[in-house]
């Protein structure tokens, strides 16, 4: 199989499609596609045409009318036209309602073709000539485009290819493409079409929106043959287009559902319509439960057997984003008022067969006597309640009231964290109890757990850093192990209350300082995209202490480096002040809001708390700028709040079970490429509770599958990937000499993997380039990166100098940075040297460079400042016209390093080779002991004091020299 060609893969696929009922038709050009559409559309509507006394064909005039209706629309508008009827005026004066697509597989006409060529000669708005692999047509319209690669080629290359086709040649009837399938025979994925231009800018399809197909147990169907049998069987592909695609109503967006969403909807429909029982869907947080549940509501509404569908959500989840999301699926479908009367008016309306409202309003409508007449009309009706976040206690407590009233109702719940026996609350009920489906049926209709979502790339893994903050050497109590004092379970067993230590002012200040020192590397990975963060603490008074600690720390840094820190919490107006609190919660909140108003120019107050909450949410989501950098909370925002730009959760509170998974899950929504995982930095030892929670909500799986490994693991991975890279290109010089497309492809893939590991390493608080420098220091990495970017640039060069594979996938976000470092300065020097400039202009450039060095806060650059200054002033002007500035600087640096060692050896009257060997050993291992130094100095007859002094001097010189010439770590 490894030697099969793309052409052979095409033929095998076409044979398979023919075997399941598709007709092959040879279409060479766009004219052929048009002619075929004309014939198939007439045959598809033959019965309607014959009823109007018309033959099953179209005249030129009639077909021209059809094409005027269909041509020159966006992908989004074309999708709506596809699903609508068209009133065609026939030449005989009659009008006929034409369909373009049907949910009836016996009526649709299924065809397959390949190697259709689109060019300017046949469709004038085509930019570049392209030839497509395999096209599936339904009723003559191209509906699914399949792009194939031979086994061993990255599947992303096919995605990139489709993106190019979308931009340059999918015109005319190819705007009716609904789905794409890409495969290299052993991996197969599908995804939805989109408008190629949005707001005047090219809109590539994101790889995070490309999905694997699975069975109903979430087992992937990877190979092309099995995928074709499952996905392209006529009932499935027809349902995909008819039922499981979404055309948003408030923005020009098409969506296709993922397999687990489809299976969940099918199982819920069957439970309600055939079995007439309840059930719940266990779909992990962040996997698209809202879309799944809403699609279920829409499909049930269309069923004649269902009288009413009520979509219930918790009042506190009904924020602007939620309302916008629901209304995007169906315009103005949400009852977003606070009045139960509005709900009653909707229930009175015979036109409203689906209602989106809150649990609280429905409970009020049921129990309020003045609404009894309207509500009684639904007692014996077939009502289906769909409940979002159904693990919430609010639904549990109101369930009995609603269930008692609606005698024939069924209930379908959706949750990412069900209540099981292990984590049930005071009422003793599990989610399975609330959605009881009889003795023979499993209440859980479908499971899509966190392990499935991470494997599919629908959510990110978590990187968890445990920061120990309490250390003790001696304990007065006998039998207590001081090393285990950060273990809450150990403290509980030994009746030790750690709360006073956790709440100690000094500890709070240290934690706040640690967060501020390392915040940049967590939320600004690769110096490109900026993300936001939550900080969860265990009580309102402690929130106040942290808030004040951050305020004080902020004042110690320049204004441009201060973090925008906000706080929010709910409070009780008549809370007890006897616990020694310094200020009432309301006073603290007023203070936080006042600071917030000063920071953002807003005018919120206690009486406008909800708008304050909504404004914070928008800034965390970067919908409104400036953003909130860190939001301090106690419980708010830890459940039900979705923000893709949020990537970090700081924790100084204990969390267990569903509250832990919900809180963690605020950070792991898929966003830009630079967001590779959700980051958790915890200042409590909650590992045991974390592992228990992840195990419970992943079906007793291994919790480590969902967590990143530790720093040492990725450091070792860096070392191993370095070996792979050097087998392809042993050094930077060799990277620039690659000749063949295969060599360049291997280099790109190897360096991309290395860059991804580096991006992960940099998110750890302990990251230090010195740890990596044993095999590749930052200068050399930057050198390889320059060639990586050079090859990327060649893919868009009309006259490329090297044969770069145009379909290779570049992760530029992981390597492109704008931080001022040594290589940045050398590149400035290179520009100053190579451009045609007067001596005066060159001197101006050099002056600018020297100022860049002076103002830089980059530790690596500062340490090299004097070396670079000397290079510029003593060597730069004498370089030949075409000299390699980087190479010249590296040579100068080596000479200066040797001169420093020679000078030190002479001043201390020791052999230069001893100094050189010790520096080399330190450079390689990152370590040198005084014992090793003394051993090398034993040949010199020195007394104890002189030997000790010289040993320390040598060690200090070695370390300083290493930092000066080899330290590449930047201040994050």
Radius of gyration: 33 Å
| Largest sheet, strands/sense/barrel | 7 strands, mixed
Strand arrangement across the biggest beta sheet: 1-4-7-8-9-10-13
Structural class designation: alpha/beta
Question: Which stretches are low in confidence, meaning pLDDT under 50 for 5 or more residues running?
Answer: 815-820, 967-972
Outline the structure in words:
The protein is built from 38 helices and 27 strands. It is α/β, with parallel strands linked by helices and 972 residues long. The longest helix has 24 residues, at 885-908. The strands form seven sheets. Strands 1-4-7-8-9-10-13 form a seven-stranded mixed beta sheet, sandwiched between helices. Mean pLDDT is 86; it is low at 815-820 and 967-972. 45% of the residues lie in helices and 12% in strands.
Summary tags:
seven-stranded mixed beta sheet; 972 residues; 38 helices; alpha/beta; globular; disordered C terminus; six-stranded parallel beta sheet; 45% helix
SSE diagram, text form:
Blueprint: H1 6-19, E1 23-24, H2 30-44, H3 46-51, H4 60-70, H5 75-82, E2 86-89, E3 95-98, E4 110-114, E5 117-118, E6 130-131, E7 134-138, E8 141-148, H6 156-168, E9 179-183, E10 188-192, E11 197-198, E12 201-202, E13 211-212, H7 224-231, H8 234-242, E14 245-247, E15 254-256, H9 259-275, E16 279-283, H10 289-301, E17 308-313, H11 320-329, H12 340-348, E18 354-358, H13 359-367, H14 372-376, E19 383-388, H15 393-405, E20 410-415, H16 431-434, E21 444-448, H17 450-456, E22 462-466, H18 488-493, H19 499-502, H20 505-523, E23 532-537, H21 540-554, E24 565-567, H22 585-600, H23 609-620, E25 630-633, E26 646-652, H24 657-664, E27 678-682, H25 687-696, H26 711-728, H27 732-735, H28 741-761, H29 769-772, H30 778-794, H31 822-834, H32 839-855, H33 859-863, H34 865-874, H35 885-908, H36 912-925, H37 930-937, H38 944-966
Parallel strand pairs: 1-4, 8-9, 16-20, 16-21, 17-18, 17-19, 19-20, 22-27, 23-25, 23-26, 24-25, 26-27
Antiparallel strand pairs: 2-3, 4-7, 5-6, 7-8, 9-10, 10-13, 11-12, 14-15
Helix pairs in contact: 1-7, 9-10, 12-13, 13-15, 20-21, 24-25, 26-28, 28-30, 31-32, 35-38, 36-38, 37-38
């Amino acid at each position: 199989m490894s030697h099969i060609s793309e052409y052979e893969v095409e033929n095998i696929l076409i044979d398979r499609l023919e075997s399941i009922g598709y007709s092959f038709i040879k279409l060479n050009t766009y004219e052929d596609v048009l002619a075929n559409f004309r014939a198939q559309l007439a045959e598809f509507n033959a019965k309607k045409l014959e009823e109007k006394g018309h033959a099953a064909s179209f005249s030129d005039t009639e077909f021209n009318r059809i094409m005027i209706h269909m041509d020159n629309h966006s992908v989004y508008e074309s999708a709506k036209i596809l699903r609508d009827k068209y009133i065609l005026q026939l030449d005989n004066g009659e009008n006929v309602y034409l369909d373009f697509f049907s949910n009836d597989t016996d009526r649709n006409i299924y065809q397959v073709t390949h190697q259709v060529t689109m060019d300017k000669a046949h469709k004038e708005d085509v930019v570049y000539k392209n030839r497509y692999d395999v096209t599936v047509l339904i009723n003559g319209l191209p509906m699914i485009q399949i792009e194939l690669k031979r086994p061993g080629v990255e599947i992303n290359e096919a995605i990139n290819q489709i993106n190019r086709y979308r931009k340059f040649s999918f015109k005319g009837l190819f705007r009716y493409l609904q789905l794409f399938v890409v495969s290299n025979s052993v991996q197969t994925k599908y995804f939805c079409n989109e408008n190629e231009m949005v707001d005047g800018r090219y809109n590539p399809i994101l790889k995070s929106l490309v999905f694997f197909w699975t069975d109903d147990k979430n087992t992937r169907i990877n190979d092309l043959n099995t995928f074709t049998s499952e996905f392209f069987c006529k009932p499935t592909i027809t349902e995909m287009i008819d039922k499981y695609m979404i055309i948003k109503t408030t923005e020009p967006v098409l969506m296709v559902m993922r397999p687990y969403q489809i299976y969940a909807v099918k199982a819920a429909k069957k439970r309600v319509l055939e079995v007439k029982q309840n059930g719940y869907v266990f779909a992990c947080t962040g996997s698209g439960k809202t879309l799944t549940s809403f699609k279920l509501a829409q499909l049930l509404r269309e069923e004649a057997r269902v009288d009413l569908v009520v979509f219930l959500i918790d009042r506190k989840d009904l924020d602007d984003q939620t309302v916008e999301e629901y209304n995007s699926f169906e315009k103005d479908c949400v009852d977003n008022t606070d009045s139960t009367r509005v709900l009653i008016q909707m229930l009175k309306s015979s036109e409203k067969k689906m209602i989106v409202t809150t649990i609280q309003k429905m409970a009020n409508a049921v129990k309020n006597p003045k609404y009894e007449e309207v509500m009684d009309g639904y007692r014996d009706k077939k009502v289906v309640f769909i409940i979002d976040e159904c693990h919430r206690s609010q639904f549990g407590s109101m369930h009995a009231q609603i269930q008692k009233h609606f005698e024939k109702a069924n209930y379908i719940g959706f949750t990412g964290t069900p209540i099981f026996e292990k984590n049930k609350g005071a009422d003793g009920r599990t989610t399975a109890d609330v959605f009881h489906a009889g003795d023979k049926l499993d209440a859980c209709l479908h499971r899509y757990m966190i392990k499935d979502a991470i494997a599919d790339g629908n959510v990110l893994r978590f990187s968890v850093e445990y920061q120990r903050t309490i250390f003790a050497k001696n304990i007065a109590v006998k039998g207590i192990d001081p090393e285990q004092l950060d273990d809450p379970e150990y403290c509980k067993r030994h009746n030790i209350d750690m709360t006073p230590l956790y709440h100690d002012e000094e500890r709070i200040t240290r934690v706040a300082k640690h967060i501020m020192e390392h915040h940049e590397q967590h939320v600004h990975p690769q110096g490109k995209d900026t993300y936001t963060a939550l900080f969860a603490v265990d009580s309102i008074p402690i929130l106040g202490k942290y808030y004040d600690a951050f305020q004080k720390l902020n004042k110690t840094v320049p204004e441009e480096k201060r973090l925008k820190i906000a706080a929010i919490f709910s409070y009780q107006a008549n809370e007890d002040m006897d616990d020694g609190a310094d200020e009432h919660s309301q006073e603290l909140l007023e203070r936080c809001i006042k600071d917030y108003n000063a920071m953002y120019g807003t005018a919120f107050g206690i009486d406008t708390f909800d708008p304050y909450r909504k404004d914070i949410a928008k800034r965390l989501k970067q919908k409104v700028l400036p953003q909130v950098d860190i939001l301090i909370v106690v419980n708010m925002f830890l459940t039900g709040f979705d923000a893709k730009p949020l990537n970090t959760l700081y924790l100084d509170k204990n969390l267990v079970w569903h509250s832990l998974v919900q809180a963690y899950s605020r950070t792991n929504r898929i966003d830009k490429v630079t967001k590779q995982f959700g980051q958790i930095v915890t200042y409590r030892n909650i590992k045991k509770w974390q592992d228990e929670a992840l195990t419970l909500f992943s079906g007793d799986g291994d919790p480590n599958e969902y967590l990143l490994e530790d720093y040492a693991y990725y450091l070792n991975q860096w070392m191993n990937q370095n070996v792979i890279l050097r087998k392809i290109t042993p050094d930077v010089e060799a990277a620039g000499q690659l000749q063949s497309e295969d060599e360049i492809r291997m280099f790109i893939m190897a360096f991309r993997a290395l860059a991804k590991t580096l991006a992960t390493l940099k998110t750890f608080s302990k990251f230090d380039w010195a740890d990596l420098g044993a095999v590749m220091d930052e200068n050399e990495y930057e050198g390889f990166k320059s060639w990586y970017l050079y090859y990327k640039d060649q893919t868009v060069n009309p006259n490329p100098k090297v044969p770069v594979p145009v379909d290779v996938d570049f992760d530029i976000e992981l390597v492109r940075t704008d931080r001022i470092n040594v290589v940045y300065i050398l590149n400035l020097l290179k520009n100053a040297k190579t451009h045609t400039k007067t001596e005066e202009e060159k001197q101006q450039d050099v002056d600018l460079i020297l100022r860049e060095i002076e103002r830089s806060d980059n530790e690596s650059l500062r340490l090299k400042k004097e070396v670079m200054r000397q290079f510029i002033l003593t060597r730069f002007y004498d370089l030949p016209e075409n000299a390699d500035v980087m190479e010249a600087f590296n040579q100068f640096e080596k000479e200066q390093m040797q001169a420093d060692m020679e000078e030190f050896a002479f001043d201390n009257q020791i052999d230069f080779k001893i100094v050189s060997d010790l520096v080399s050993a330190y450079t390689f291992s990152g370590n040198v002991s005084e014992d090793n130094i003394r051993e090398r100095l034993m040949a010199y007859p020195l007394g104890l004091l002189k030997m000790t002094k010289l040993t320390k001097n040598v060690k200090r010189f070695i370390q300083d020299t290493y930092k000066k010439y080899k330290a590449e770590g930047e201040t994050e």
